[in-house]
Amino acid sequence: MGRSPCCSKEGLNRGAWTAMEDRILKDYIKIHGEGQWRNLPKRAGLKRCGKSCRLRWLNYLRPDIKRGNITRDEEELIIRLHKLLGNRWSLIAGRLPGRTDNEIKNYWNTNIGKKLQDKQSRSLSNRKPSNRSQQKANPTIETSARLPSEAKLTSCVIRTKATRCTKVFINVPEPQLEDTYKPSVLRPFPLPEEPESSEFVPKEDNDPSNLMIDLEVDENFLSEFLNSEFSQLQPSHFQNKGDSYSNSDTCDPGQYSSTNSDQSLFLSNDMMQDADFTSMASLMESELDWLQDQADPN
DNA sequence: AAAGTCCGCAACCGCTATTTC
DNA sequence: AGAAATAGCGGTTGCGGACTT
Q1: Which of A108, A128, A244, A294 is the most buried (most CB within 10 A)?
Q2: What is the spatial distance between Cα A298 and Cα A289, in angstroms, rounded to a whole number?
Q3: Domain residues for A47?
Q4: A289 and A185, same domain (yes or no)
Q5: In the complex, which nucleotide's C1' lies nearest to the CA atom of residue A218?
Q6: Within a domain: residue A6?
Q7: What does the angle CA A219 – CA A223 – CA A225 come to, to the nearest 5 degrees?
Q8: What is the 3-state secondary structure (H, E, C) of A95-154?
């Protein structure tokens, strides 16, 4: 399906915005509101493409943008949310009022990701001589955009292209009849400050017992999930597409796919003591409770 | 003081999902 | 039904300031 470019690039300004342009855009949106980005530049008299205007507004000019350094609390929240959501920066930003996805993404790439990587490499070198394959096997290394593609395969949440999340993949655990859910298992990968020898022992990703269920999630499910009372969500939000372990849309869990169809929020085997919806909801509810507490202790 | 390097951030790019016609 | 338009997302780039040599 051919698409015309969002704007004709001829005669348009590029690069940093001037104070004048900012003012024009701000004033225009104050009067006419957001939206209609394609037509906005022409109407406002800006020599910018609509996309650029939208980005400038969302990431910089919006009145509710919080400026200033990311606090320690915010950083911790970002780390937690990133463990839960992967590189879904807009979802993470949604839990941090006043922060933009771009800001969080940049912060992650320049600060947190680097810290985690340093910690990781230090702990690896303390244990054994550095070994690429060992580093690759450790899921706590979340790679930044600038890392080579090989390194990206180490991540537990793989999204090679910008897509909206419409599916949830769950590893079905082996039957553990007596096990009941323990909140601690919700954090499948040790936090940076947690010792590696916690009770969590990652399973081999290519363990064939890790069946995957491709759950089709209805519209905006994840946002709903994050913003709603979990008790109000119904199992009907999911439609089991069946055994997708061998589904061509998915991939061998040990060789995370880099195809377009990979839109998974990956919940590891150890996050799930039970594969049914109730357990999944309670798992996420518990984690979100914790996050809520951090964001708003009252 | 000048040149080179590093790093953070804003902006851009290419893509998909959704909506509209 | 399907093409086009629009909105939104995450990855990547490049500018400019800070720092080092």
Answers
A1: A108
A2: 12
A3: 19-61
A4: yes
A5: B17
A6: no
A7: 95
A8: CCCCCCHHHHHHHHHHHHHHHHHHHHHHHHHHHCCCCHHHHHHCCCCCCCCCCCHHHHCC
Q: For residues A74 and A93, state if they share a domain.
A: yes
Q: Are residues A160 and A291 in the same domain?
A: yes
The total number of structural domains that make up chain A: 3
Of all residues in chain A, the percent with pLDDT exceeding 70 is 36
Which has more pLDDT, A37 or A280? A37
A2 CA to C4 C1', in Å? 9
Of A160, A201, A199, the residue nearest A182 (C-alpha):
A199
Pairing mode, strands A264-267 and A167-172: parallel
d(CA A273, CA A279): 7
Interatomic CA–C1' length for residue A117 and nucleotide B6, angstroms: 18
A238 φ, ψ (degrees, to nearest 5): -105, 145
pLDDT digits (tens, 9 = 90+) for A87-133: 888 888 888 888 888 888 888 888 887 777 666 666 655 554 333 33
Residue A277 vs residues A119, A227, A235, A285: alpha-carbon distances, Å: 35, 17, 6, 12
Beta strand pairing call for A238-243 and A211-217: antiparallel
Tell me what pLDDT residue A232 has.
Answer: 44
Indicate whether A287 belongs to any domain.
yes
Q: Are residues A37 and A77 in the same domain?
A: no
Residue A62 approaches strand B within 7 Å at CB: no
CA of A88: nearest nucleotide by C1' is: C10
Q: Are residues A137 and A255 in the same domain?
A: no
Chain A 173..192 CB hits on strand C (< 7 A): none
Nucleic strand C near CB of residue A159 (< 7 Å) = yes
